[in-house]
Each structure stands twice: as structure tokens, then as C-alpha cells.
Write a structure and sequence with these properties.
The structure is a homodimer of 119-residue chains. With 119 residues, chain A is mostly helical. In chain A, 51% of the residues lie in helices and 0% in strands. Chain A has seven helices and no strands. At the A-B interface, helix 2, helix 3, helix 4, helix 6 and helix 7 of A face helix 2, helix 3, helix 4, helix 6 and helix 7 of B. The structure holds a DNA duplex (30 and 30 nucleotides).
DNA sequence: CTGCTATGTTAGCTCAAGCTAACAATAAAG
DNA sequence: CTTTATTGTTAGCTTGAGCTAACATAGCAG
């Protein structure tokens, strides 16, 4: 009786995806669906090409958060848009990062004694 | 003896990720790592913020294909870069798609009798 | 240089992602 | 309108993604 009550998911991230992330993924999925339809391809045809099932393609087009990035990336690749993926978080266009980088450029994060909880 | 020989993975996509996809994911992972370090955050701090373990953060920074897109998206979100995600495959900047779309704009793909194997 | 700590690595375990199969719903072709 | 095929949905099953824990490695602060 007590056992079933304690049903805390092991993965907190997937258990409660922040709204902005959910919204972003849904838009991405919609974009992928539009890209497929414009090329007049079926989910099954695309699935075969990338070596998966049509359900995974469908999941990605719905923006399902738990689907592997490989699925999303494979769709981008199929539509000739793979280059856009590696532009995400590009250091050259990451303004916040670029500004911050001018001072320190490390290979590990580090506590500098005090000011740590800023952010 | 025959049983073990037939070890075909269930997921063909993850079993053999195309090179371009692998390369793109690795670059993305490197970008995410750079973004984190510029902000002087530890993998553990970021992991806590997004509700996962530091190993998942590490996996994403390595560009692991089987990691959920939620993990990648959460990192982008943490660094204030989530908007870039929904710009992927944006129909407005998908040249190939835009050109093709001028003729048909469907909600399902369709075989038009013959010419199907083009692409 | 020296200690502190961030990160890498490994092993074992658990649960859900992704698979198959069957059926329903529905958009497009003619 | 009728036919056909694409897409949605569900259920059950299997494998691997992600977790914990412990230890090793190696940057950074001082």
C-alpha cells in the first residue's frame, strides 16, 4: 500500500519539462512536419530512410521531449538541414557567453571563493 | 549457439548513426560545453537546475546521439538560448521547402501515381 | 607546489523509449 | 462519392538510457 504511493519518477527533467522547452520542442516538431510535407514524403518513407519506425518520426513531429536527439537530427539531415544543428549555441553568436569569455576561458568550472550563487 | 549470433539491434538509427549527424551532434555538444564554461558553471550545478544527473549533461556535451532532446534543450534553456531551437527547420528559411511549397501545401503526403522515387 | 574539487570512468540496476501489430480515422486522387 | 493510402491510436514487450555509487584523473586557486 505504501509502495505504490511513492511513485516519484526517476527522471525529474522528463517528468516536468519547463514550459519554454516544451513550447520550443513543439514548434520544432511542427517545422519538421512542414518540411516533410513540402517534400511530399510519408512518415514511413522518412522512417525507413533514417532506420527507425514511423512512430518515432511522428513523436519528433509532436515535439516529444523524451525522444532521442538522434531522431530529430536524422530528420534535419534527411531534409538537408543538418548544418543548422551545429550552429546551435555557436560560441561566436552566443552574446552572453562572448562577453563573459573575455575574462576567463577555462576547461573546467571553478568556485572563486564567494560569488557563486549569481546567475 | 545460433541464438546469440542473431544480434541485430532493434534501433537501426542509433546502431549506425550517419557520419554527418554524428559530427553535427559533436559540434553541438562542444558548443554547449563552451557555453557552460563561459558562464563558469559546473556540470553538477547545471544538472541540478534542469533536474537530471551530471552524467546526462556530460553525455550531451559529448554529443551522444541516444540522449533525449530534452537534455539538449534544457541546456540551451539554461544558457538562455532556447529560442534558437525553434528556429531549426523554420519553414520561412527552408529554401528547398519554400520553393516546393508553392505548388502543393498538404496535411498528408501522397503518391501521385508515378513519379515517386525522386527526391 | 599542494590541496581542493570538477570531471571522467566503470559497474549494476530500473524503468521507460521505441519496437511490433492491429485497427480506426481521415485526407487526397480520380 | 468512392477508393486508397496516410496517419493516429492503443496494447504488450524488450532493450538500452539514465540513475546511483565509488574511485581515478586532472585543472584551478592560493
Amino acid at each position: 500500500m505504501m509502495s505504490a504511493a511513492n511513485t516519484k519518477p526517476r527522471n525529474d527533467l522528463l517528468a516536468a519539462v519547463p514550459y519554454q522547452i516544451e513550447a520550443g520542442l513543439k514548434k520544432l516538431g511542427a517545422n519538421l512536419k512542414t518540411a516533410r510535407l513540402r517534400r511530399n514524403l510519408t512518415t514511413e518513407a522518412v522512417a525507413m530512410k533514417i532506420g527507425t519506425s514511423r512512430f518515432v518520426v511522428s513523436d519528433a513531429e509532436k515535439g516529444k521531449p523524451s525522444t532521442s536527439i538522434a531522431a530529430y537530427a536524422a530528420l534535419l539531415w534527411t531534409y538537408g538541414l543538418i548544418d543548422q544543428l551545429s550552429e546551435l549555441a555557436n560560441p561566436l553568436t552566443d552574446e552572453v557567453g562572448t562577453t563573459l569569455a573575455l575574462s576567463h576561458e577555462r576547461s573546467r568550472a571553478r568556485r572563486s571563493r564567494k560569488l557563486n550563487n549569481d546567475f
